[in-house]
Structure of 3-deoxy-7-phosphoheptulonate synthase:
Amino acid sequence: MSELNQLRERIEEINIAILDLLSERGEIAKQIGLEKRKAGTMIYDPMREKEMINKLQDLNKGPYDDNVIKQLFKEIFKASTELQKSENEKHLYVSRKLKSDDTIVTTANGGVIGGDEKIFVFGPCSVESYEQVEQVAENLVEKGQKFIRGGAFKPRTSPYDFQGLGVEGLKILKEINKKYDLAVISEVVDPHHFEMADPYIDIYQIGARNMHNFELLKEAGRSNKPVLLKRGLSATIEELIYAAEYIHASGNSNIIICERGIRTYEKATRNTLDISAVPILKQGTHLPVLVDVTHSTGRKDIMLPVAKAALAVGADGVMAEVHPDPSVALSDAGQQMDLNEFDLFYKEIEQARKLYR
Ligand code: PEP
Ligand code: MN
């Protein structure tokens, strides 16, 4: 046998010996994990890791540099920590790996989001008056809809723009809910709003601007109603999933995610609808996913094909804004459908919906 082949053979023997030792180490690490769990101590112990690395560096005779030894063992420690975690700790609560069946969100009026049938959430951008909301509500009931949206607390870009009717707006929505049996979806912007809005709202909305408001997310987690969480203006899908995790980790699993477009350099639409977020969120989480075609496109002329695309890629429903007279709307006047435009949109999207049941 040539010298090279002999050396290679020895290297392979050493590989196998290292592998055996790693396997033995892994088994012991798992046992340590069980002991730690019994004792209620943290799995990750940085002080202990540091001690072990210092000792190894002291014993290091080369030829590897101390830093190389440190990096190699850090990888081994990381793998051991992963082994010590339970299945629950390895995955997020919202992950489909932890719960493979779909989360289905229901409302008292029989509304179902995330079930076999795709749904719609329509309604004005802002609640402006009882009559304004009622005109939309009547139209929705004629169409057999179960939900209505409308903002009472509006996070506006300019402090001089209409900020919403506040509690008065919520009271209007409650009247509509009582009269028309539509489940009400409305945004809250302050952790104290959950308790205050509880009598009036069926599904709390957390808007794009508050997706990173962790105190609001935690309070949403402590509430006992479903939460519709919108993607932040420049949030990655991972950040959106973590925002949902905040709600779930605080105790509320009734979460609906809403893709509403993100900010990019593209100016042809108000935001860029990230259509691929829909199947990614459906694969990665067990939560229902809606697509808001109003705030993503900002363009009534393309809302219908975009809504169809959303259903085609697996969204559980579509959200869009409808106003009896958008020309006088106090917010988003340019992109809310009037009732005639809405009829045309609805006829087509309802056909599309049936295709994807
Ligand atoms: C809304 O849906 O009323 C709204 C303000 O949307 P976003 O938070 O997505 O901008
Ligand atoms: Mn709006």
